[in-house]
From TrEMBL:
Single GO MF descriptor: oxidoreductase activity, acting on the CH-CH group of donors
UniProt entry tagged with the keyword Oxidoreductase: yes
Coiled-coil stretches: none
UniProt-recorded name of the protein: Acyl-CoA dehydrogenase C-terminal domain-containing protein
Pfam families in the record: Acyl-CoA_dh_2
Acyl-CoA dehydrogenase C-terminal domain span: 11-45
Keywords: Oxidoreductase
């Protein structure tokens, strides 16, 4: 959840920078195009390996608890 909040902040900052710079900001001559693209991609990229393994483990444990409660 914290990572999502962080990336939403990145997107907001990149949006403001693009508005200030205008249409020229979307050219590859400025780094804003890449920064905006990277910020948007951060929402869809999977977490690092350790975080993914922890998420999978927690889900498996929760599933085991739910099954045991039945």
């Amino acid at each position: 959840m914290g990572e999502r909040v962080r990336f939403v902040g990145y997107i907001d900052a990149a949006d403001q920078a693009l508005r200030i710079a205008g249409g020229f900001a979307l050219t590859r001559a400025l780094p804003l195009e890449r920064l905006y693209r990277d910020a948007r991609a951060g929402l869809t990229h999977p977490p690092n390996d350790d975080a993914a393994l922890e998420l999978i483990g927690r889900a498996a444990l929760e599933g085991a608890r739910t099954t045991a409660d039945k």
